[in-house]
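Cross-posted from the bioinformatics board.
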Amino acid sequence: MQNHILSIILFTPLLGALVLLFVPKENKDAIRWIANLFSLGGFLISLPLVPMFWAQRFEPGFKFIEGSPSNWIPTIGAGYLIGIDGISFLLIMLTTLLGWISILSSWTAIENRVKEYYVWFLILQTGMLGVFMALDFFLFFVFWEAMLVPMYLLIGIWGGPRKLYAAIKFFLYTLAGSVLMLLGILFLYFHHHALTGIYTFSLTALYQTAPKIYSDPAYGPNIAILLFFAFFFAFAIKVPMFPFHTWLPDAHVEAPTAGSVILAGVLLKMGTYGFIRFSLPFFPDVLMHTRVRTWMIVLSLIAIIYGALVSLMQKDMKKLVAYSSVSHLGFCTLGIFALTPLGLSGSVLQQVNHGISTGALFLIVGILYERRHTREIAEYGGISNVMPVYATITMIMFLSSMGLPLLNGFVGEFTILQGTFMENWRWGAWAVPGVVLAAAYLLWLYQRVFFGTVTNPKNEKLHDLTPREVLTFVPLLIMAFWIGLYPKPFFQILEQPVNQIVANVRTPQSGGVVNAATQPDAAQAPIATTAAVIDAPTRVQPTKGTK
Amino acid sequence: MAPVATPFFFYLLSGIMLIGGILVITRKNPVHSALALIVTLLAQASIYLMLYAPFVAGVQIILYAGGIMVLFLFVIMLVSIDRSIKERQFNSQWVVGIIAATALGGLFIAAFTKGDKIFPEHVLPMVENDNTQNIATLLYGQYMFAFEIASLLLLVAIIGAVVMAKKRI
Amino acid sequence: MFLTHIWLIPLLPAVGAAVMFFFGRRLQKATVSAVCVGSIVLAFILACGAVWQYSAWSSTSDNFHKPYQTILCTWLGSDTGHLNYRTQDGSPAPLQADVGFLLDPLSSIWLLFVTGVGMLIHIYSTGYMAHEGGYYRFFGYLNLFMFSMLTLILANNYVLLFVGWEGVGLCSYLLIGFYFHRKSASDAAAKAFIVNRIGDAGFLLGMFFIAWYFGSLRFIEVTHIAHSGRFSIGDPIITAATLLLFVGACGKSAQLPLYIWLPDAMEGPTPVSALIHAATMVTAGVYMVARSNALFVLAPTSMKTVAIVGALTAIFAASIGLVQNDIKRVLAYSTVSQLGYMFLALGVGAFAAGVFHVFTHAFFKALLFLGAGSVIHSMSGEQDMRNMGDLGHRIPITHRTMFIATLAIAGIFPFAGFFSKDAILWETWSREGGAYRFLWYVGYATALMTAFYMFRLMYLTFHGRPRMSHEAEHHIHESPMSMTVPLIVLALCAVGTGWLGWPHSLGGSDRFTKFLEPVFAGEARVLQEEGRTSQLVAGVEEQHNSSTEWLLMALSLAAAGLGWGMAWRSYRHADKGYTEPIAAAVPPVYDVLLHKYYVDEGYDYVFTGRRKLGNVRLGVLGLGTASAWFDTHVVDGAVNAAGWITRLTGTISSWWDKWIIDGIGVNGPATLARILSYPARLFEWGLVQWYALVMTAGLVGFVFYYVYR
Amino acid sequence: MLHITTLHYLVLGAALFLLGVIGVLTRRNVVIVLMSIELILNAVNLNLVAFSRLWGGLHGQIFAIFVITDAAAEAAVGLGILIAFFRNKETVNIDEVNLLKW
C-alpha cells in the first residue's frame, strides 16, 4: 500500500471511468452516484498520503518513487516512473479535492450526455494527477497531452454558445506550445545520449545533463536560450502568461462550471508547475546570466496589473474571474522567477490558494448561472436579499481572493511579494498595485451583484443554496481558513523542495561563467545540500514575558 | 452380389435419380421440387451402397435427406411462395442457359469417349467390411486438420446464418 | 494572570463574532446582545486587569520600562529557520510573523479606550439598533471589528498589525455597507475599502523595506536595531520605508489626499461612525506611526511630511466642516481635522501629545457621534440640520452631554480637548527652536474653525426655531436608557480625561506623558543627538518659558471663544431659511466649501475615471477600458489573426488539393479509366445467373480446349 | 454392356450435373436454384465415390463427406441470405436481386 499509494491515487479515477462504461447511459442517477463515489474515493484515498508525506517532509529528493527508468518502452528509454516532492504533493492534494468538488457540483448542472461527461471528467482527473506525479519526461508528456482531450470535449460538448470556438482555441493554442516542448524534450534526450551514451527520459538523469548545454561549446548560450523558450511557450500558454492568455477567458466563459473549476484550479497550475519542475532546473544559467529572467518578471508584472485592469471592465462574471486568474497567476510566475525560496514557496502556496479561491469563485458564478442562465453582471443586483447564505460565502471567497489577512490569499501574496521584494525591490513595488486593483474589481462586482435592492423581477424568486451546494463549499472554506490561519505546515512541506531548486539554480553549473555581480551568493552551495544554501539564521530570541 | 442384379439396380436407380433431377428443376412449386430432390438423394444413397460406401450413404441419408432438406422445407414455409408460383418460372436467358448446358453435356460425352482408356480395366479390390472404421481412422488421422477446419467452417456458417436471418441482433 | 492571558482580549470578540456567524440568525435579540456586549465587557475587564498588572510588572527593577511580549506561535513562516530571505547586508533572515502580543504604555492606552469606548458603544447600539433588521449581523460585525482592532493594537509585529489593519478595514466596509440596499451606502463602503487598500499597499511596501533593512518585523527588534545607531539619520531607505508607512496611515486615518472615504463612511449606522470612524479605527494610523517612532525619528524628511500633511488636513477638513449641513458630515470632517492635529503632533516629534489627543478625542468624538445618533434617533432618521432646531429642551440629556463634548472639542478650559490641543499647539510652536512655527498658525486657525463649526452644530440643532415638519416634531423623544447612560459616561470622560495630562505650566504633573515615556524615551535621545530639539519629555519641560505657554493658551482660548461667539451671533435664532454668514460674505468660497473643494469630482475625473473628461476617460477605469480594448483587439486579435491566416492557407491548400492535385493528378486517370470502362460494362448487368451463365460458357471453352487440343 | 463400369457412374454424374446447371441457369426461384446447386454437389459426390471405388481407397469417400459438410454450410448460409433478402424485398426471384448492379 505504502509503495503503491501514488499509483492507486493516480488510477482510481480511471477505474471509475472504466466502471462507468458498463452502466447503461439511461440510468443517469446511478452514473452520478458512481462518479461521485469514485471522485470522493479518489480524494479519500489521497488523504493517507498526508501523514505519510508529513513524516518525511524534510527529507531531500523525491518520495514515494514507483517504477524505474526505461521500464515501459526500454528501446527508447521511457519509463513508468512516478514520485512526488512537497510541491507536487500540494498540487496533487489540490487536484483530488477539486476533482471531487467539481464532480459534486455538476450533479444538476449536466443533464445531457451524463455518462460521457463523467467518464471524460474522471479521465481528465487521472491525466492531471499523472502530470504532477511523472518523473519521466515521456510519461509526463503523455499525461500532459492526454489531459487536453477530455478538457477539449468538456468545453466543446457541454459548453456555452460559443463552445466550439473556445474549445478549438484552447486545444490548438495549448497544442502549439506542447509541440515546441516536445522538440525541447527531444533535444535534451539526444543531448543526454551524446554525453552519456544512454537514451533515457528520466528526469533525474536529464537534470544532470541539461544545464550543461549553456556552457557546452558545441551549443552555447543561444541554443540554451532557444531551448528555454521552447519550454517557455508550452508553459506560458498553459499558465497563461501575459501575451498568451486570451484563450483563457474564452475557455472559461464557455466551459461548464465544473470544467472552469478544474481549468482554473488545476490545469493552469500545470504551467507554473512546469516552470518549477523543468524550466528552472534545466536552464539555470539562462535564468541567472541572461536577460531572460527580467523578461519573465516583466511579463509577470504586466499580467498582474493588466489582468486586473481588464478584469475591472468585464461585463460577464466568468470573464471577470478569468481575467482575475491572469492577474493571480502573474503573482505565481513572479514568485517563481524571483528565484528565492520565499518567492517560490509563496508561488506554490498561491497556486494552491488560487485553486481554492478561484475554484470557489467559478462555483459561485456557476450557481447563479444554473438558476438564471446568464452571467451578465447587469442582470443581477440585490442578490444578498434573496440568497443570504450564498452572499456570505461569496463575500468570504472574494476576500480570500483579494488577499485579506487570515484568509489564504494573503499568505501566498505576502510571501511572494516579500520574496520578490528582497530580490529586487522594484519588482515587488510594481506588483503591489495588483493588490489594490484586486480589491477594486472584486468589490465592485460584489456591489453590483449583491448589494442594492432586487431590481430585476427574475431575481426575486431565487432560492438559496441547497445542502449539496453548501457541501461543495465547505472543504474550500475550511482550506481557505486553514491556510490563512495556520500556514506553517504548508511552509514546512515546501521548505525542502524550494530550497533545493533555488540551490540548483543559483549554483554555477560546471563551466558556467559566474557573474559575480548578478549572483552574489551562488558560490556557497553544492547542488544537493539544501540547508547549506541559506544557512540557518541567527534568530533573535523573542523577549518572553514572565508568567 | 450377383452380376445380374447389379446392372438392373443401377439402371433403376439412375432412372429414378434423373427423373427426380428433372422434376427438381421443372416444378413450379418449390415443395414439389424439394420432395423430388429427396427422392433423388435417397436413390443416390443406394448407389453409394453399390459402390461399397455405406458410411457415405448413411451420411447422405441423414444429413442430406434428413437435415438439409428439412432446412429447405422450413425456408420454403417461411418465404411466401404463393406469388412466385404464379409468376414466370424461367428467366429471360433460359434458352441460352440450356444451350450452354447442352454444349457442356456434349463436351462431357466427348471427353468420356476420348478418355475412356485412362481408366484401368478392372476395378481394384477393396476391403468391403470395416468401412466406417477405416473412414474414421482416416478422418481422425490423416485428415485431422481438414476435419477441424470443416468444423470451424460449420461454426462460421451457423453464426453467419443466425446473423443474417435474425431481424435485430 | 491577566498579562499571560492577554490573547484572550482579542479572542473574546472573535468568539462572539463566530457565534453570530454560525448561529446568529436563529438567536433572539436579547441573546445576541448578551453574547456580543458580554464579550466586550469581559474584554474590557481583562484589558483593565492587564494594564494594571503591566504597570506593576514594568515598575519592578528587572523589567523597568520594558514592554511585555508574549509569543504564542509562528503564524507565517516554517518555523524551522530554513525558509529565509536575504537582508540588505546579505545575511539570511527567516520569513516570520508570530501570533504574538505586545503590551507597553502605548498599546495600553489604546487598549483601554478601545475596549472602554467600544463597550459603551456596544451598549448604546442595543438601544439604537433595537428596531433595525439584521441585528445579529450588526453585532457580529461589531465584534469582528473589536477583534481586528484589538489585534492591531496588541500585535507584536508589523504583519500581525497588518492583519488587524486589514481586518478593521474589512469591518469598516461591512458596516458602512450595512444598509446595503442603499446604493450610496454600498458605494461608500467600496470607496472606503479601496482607498484604504491604496494605503495598505504603501504599508505593505514599507513593511518589506523594514524587513529588508532590519531582518525582522517585530517591533521590539526593529526598535532595538534602530536605536543601536547602525543607521544614520536621514537614511534614504528608512525615509522611504517611513514615507510608505505614512501612506498607509493616510489611508487608514483619512489624511490628505486619501481622506475622501471618511465623510462618505457616514452612510453606516451612527454607532459605527462613533466607534470606527471617530474613536478607534481612524486612529490606527496614528498608532502605527507612533509605534514606528524609532524609525520616523531617523527620517527627518518623513517627519516633516507627516507634520505638514497633518496640518494641511486639519485646516482643509475644518474649512469644509464650516458649511456642511448634514450633522454627521460635520462631525466626519471634524474627525478628519482632529486626526490632522494628531499627525501634526507626531510630525513635530511630540508623540506623547499626539497620543494624548487621540485619547481625549476618542471620548468626546464618540460622545458627539453618539449624541448625533441620539438626535437622529429622536428625529426619526433626519440628519439635515436645516430641518432641526430647538431640540434642547426636548432631549435634554443628549443636549447637555453633547454640549460638554462641544466644549471639549473646542478646547475650553478645563475640558479634555483643551489640554490635548494645547499640548499640540505648544509643541508645534516650540519644537526645534520654532522650525515648525508656521504650522502653529495653521493649527491655530483650525482651532478657531473648530469652535465655530461645533457651536454652529449645537445652535442649529438644539437652539433657534424648530424647523422640522409637524409630524417629525410630534415624534421627538428622548432616547432610551441604554443610549443615554453611555452618553453620560462618555461626558464624564470628556471632562475628566484631559486632567491626566495637566501640564506642568499649570501646576500639574502631566502623568500621561510620563506614562508614555518608556515608549518615546529613545527618540528623545535621538532627537537630542541630532541637535534638533532641546526638550521633549517631562523633566526637561520645566526649562521652557512658561509665560509663552500661558500666552499661547490664552490665545487659543480666545480663538475658541471667538468661534463660539461667531456661531452664537449667526445661528442663535436660526429659523427656516436662515443665512449662512460665509455665504453672505463670500459666496464663491461658500460654494467651493459646500462642494468640498470639488475633490471627489476631481478624483472621479483623474484617478477613478468614473467621470469622462470630454470623450476621454482617464484614471483606472480609463486604463481598464484601454486594456480591455487592447486585449480583445490586439492580443486576442493577433491570436485570431494567426488562426485566420492558418485557415486562409488551409483554404488555398485545399483548393489546390481539390482542383490541381486531386482534380488533375488523381481524378484524371480515374476519369480516363471510367471512360474506357464503358464497353466493358456492357457485359455486366448485375444478374447473378448471367454470371453463372458466363461461367458455364467459360467452362465449356475450358473443357473444349482440353478435349480437342 | 451388362457390366457396370466406372464410366457408367461418371455419365450418371455428368447427367445429374447438367440438370443442376440447367436449374441454376434458368430458374428464377432462389430456393430451386439452391436445390440445383445441391444437385451439382451430389453429382460431384457421385464421381468422387465412384473413383474411390475404382482405386480401392477411401480418400474419395472422405472427400465426399467433406463436400457434404460444405453443402450443409452452404445451404445454411444461402438460406439465411435468402430469408434476409426476402424480408427486405418480399420476393424470392433471383433476377430481382440487383442491388449491387451499377
